[in-house]
């Protein structure tokens, strides 16, 4: 089981930092490290009207919990990178992407989302160096 139920992402295994710290203790050269996190989703909550029905409310609650879990994972990765003195670069779908998904796997939506990312990269992608505040 997982698929994002427990954690949607992790930064690096603890063994990576143990090896870096051991090299530092021995006064060996350590190459500066930078993390690049690409979040295939939004980090800001999306407002939506919900029918006053149990299943609609439950569905929206689960969707919100998954979104918040992803944001929390990014916050944890940022905190870990800060603690370990690792550079932090984050890409995600910003609030400036406003097209709504009419149904799962909608081709027009997927093309618009691809174009959104492509245009940002073409302009010289501006990586976020800390998570956005929501």
Q: Topology, pairings included?
A:
Layout: H1 14-25, E1 34-42, H2 54-83, E2 87-93, H3 107-122
Parallel strand pairs: 1-2
Feature tags:
single chain, 134 residues, alpha+beta, two-stranded parallel ribbon, globular
Question: Brief overview, please?
Answer:
43% of the residues lie in helices and 12% in strands.
The average pLDDT is 86
Physical arrangement of strands within the biggest beta sheet:
1-2
Basic shape: globular
Using only C-alpha atoms, the radius of gyration works out to: 18 Å
Q: Which parts are unreliable, with pLDDT below 50 for 5 consecutive residues or more?
A: none
Structural classification: alpha+beta
- In helices, the fraction of residues equals 40-55%
Give the strand content.
5-15%
Total strands:
2
Termini separation (Å)? 29 Å
Q: Biggest sheet, open or closed, and with what strands and sense? A: 2 strands, parallel
Number of helices: 3
Q: Output the helix-strand order.
A: HEHEH
How would you describe what is shown here?
The chain is α+β, with helices and mostly antiparallel strands and 134 residues long. The protein contains three helices and two strands. The protein has helices at residues 14-25, 54-83, 107-122; strands spanning 34-42, 87-93. The chain has a two-stranded parallel ribbon with strand order 1-2. Helix 2 links the parallel strand 1 (34-42) and strand 2 (87-93). The radius of gyration is 18 Å and the shape is globular.
């Amino acid at each position: 089981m997982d698929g994002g139920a427990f954690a949607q992402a992790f930064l690096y295994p603890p063994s990576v930092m143990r090896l870096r710290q051991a090299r530092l203790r021995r006064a060996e050269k350590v190459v500066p490290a930078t993390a690049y996190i690409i979040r295939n989703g939004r980090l800001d909550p999306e407002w939506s009207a919900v029918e006053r029905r149990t299943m609609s409310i439950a569905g929206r609650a689960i969707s919100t919990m998954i979104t918040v879990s992803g944001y929390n994972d990014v916050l944890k990765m940022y905190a870990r990178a800060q603690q370990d003195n690792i550079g932090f670069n984050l890409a995600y779908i910003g609030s400036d992407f406003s097209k709504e998904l009419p149904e799962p796997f909608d081709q027009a939506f997927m093309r618009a989302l691809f174009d959104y990312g492509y245009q940002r990269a073409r302009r010289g992608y501006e990586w976020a160096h800390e998570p956005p505040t929501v």
